[in-house]
Amino acid sequence: MAWLKRNGHWLLTIYVAFVFIQSLFFKFTGSPETVYIFQGKLDPWAASLGFPGVFAPGGIFSARVVGTMELIASILLLAGAAISSQRTVQVLGATLGLGVISGAIFFHLFTPLGVAVVNTDGSSDGGQLFALACGVWVCCAALLWMRRSLWLGWLGIK
User: Fold this and answer.
1) Which uninterrupted H or E stretch holds 120?
2) Which of 50, 62, 71, 144 is 20 to 30 A from 90, alpha carbon to alpha carbon?
3) For 83, phi and psi rounded to 5 degrees?
4) Strand, helix or coil at 49?
5) Residue 118 in 3-state DSSP?
């Protein structure tokens, strides 16, 4: 139990970094799956609300912007885990990761994207992307709980 308490943050960090980093190929190369999600589902939905282009290439929530935030969160998480004097960096990474993944979960639940993403060819991911996102959310929240003394101190709460 002592080992888990001392090193558990590594398990959480590695899961989040793995999920974020493995998705970068898709987000940065314009893969058909990513184009379908961002430009085929999310951008038309946003346009119907009066916000066209926010998920398109160059938009504020484009795949590359989201991927960049995931990369930054991963770097911060890994650096903060590796250097014990830099736990603050891990808190920043977990906070950024929680924000990014909360957005992903929102878009899965409350837009035409859906929990199980159905591609243009009719295939479904069976909810795999959503499940990974939920796992990332839990891990980031757990990291923030583990490091609560740091960020509560920033807020002046003891």
Assistant:
1) none
2) 62
3) -115, 105
4) coil
5) strand
